[in-house]
Amino acid sequence: MGEKEQFVMIDxxxxxxxxxxxxxxxxxxxxxxxxxxxxxxxxxxxxxTIADIMGLSSHSKNRLAMQNTLVSLEExxxxxxxxxxxxxxxxxxxxxxxxxxxxxxxxxxxxEHGFTKISYKVxxxxxxxxxKYKDLMFSIYFNIIQRIYDTDKSLDYSYATIETVEVETxxxxxxxxxxxxxMKENKIIYYETISENSKKDKNYYSxxxxxxxxxxxxxxxxxx
Length: 224
Fold this sequence. Notes:
The structure is a single chain. By secondary structure, the chain is α+β, with helices and mostly antiparallel strands. The chain folds into two domains: 7-106, Orthogonal Bundle (Arc Repressor Mutant, subunit A), CATH 1.10.10; 129-218, Orthogonal Bundle (Arc Repressor Mutant, subunit A), CATH 1.10.10. Helices cover 41% and strands 16% of the residues. It has a three-stranded antiparallel β-sheet with strand order 2-4-3. A hairpin with a 5-residue loop joins β6 and β7. α2 crosses α4 (60-75), α2 (23-35) packs across α6 (134-145) and α6 (134-145) packs across α8. It is elongated and about 65 Å long. The chain starts with 6 loop residues before the first strand and ends in a 6-residue tail after the last helix.
């Protein structure tokens, strides 16, 4: 038997609440949750690595920006930071040194709107992207993918309009189109643009691993 695929569970309400949590906070929360180990459910935290994952240099201003995001997560009761692996020496994020390693434990978010599973394969692809503003890209990805329910009876595709994604994420249309193209090139998301009944073009989306089901739906094999 093959190894069972692992997922990061992200609360839908947390991602939808863009008035409280900005895209950088949401993306770093996702990354830290994915990096949490099995021993104490904590993640190794250092500002240089987080900056690198975000596609930024290790310049002091970027490390400070990452620290400020950690401070914000702490203030919003989502992050507990410690000096030691055993989590016995708490430290405030505002007191951390941007050149040292710490351990972070996330406070899980569980709302009334369910959660979406993001595979570790997708997490690895986001980490490996050579792009800045991955946080905006992840917000777009999540907004589309969270509409695809993880049940045997549900459809494996989504057809959210660009206008809907724009309103719900606060990201402008041009940026959404740019990052959709980048995610498709990097095999994170699959989509096709279809003209239906000479009306406005419509995008259909799926997770990259489910793309064949979407292709079969949009282009059914000819009956023999």
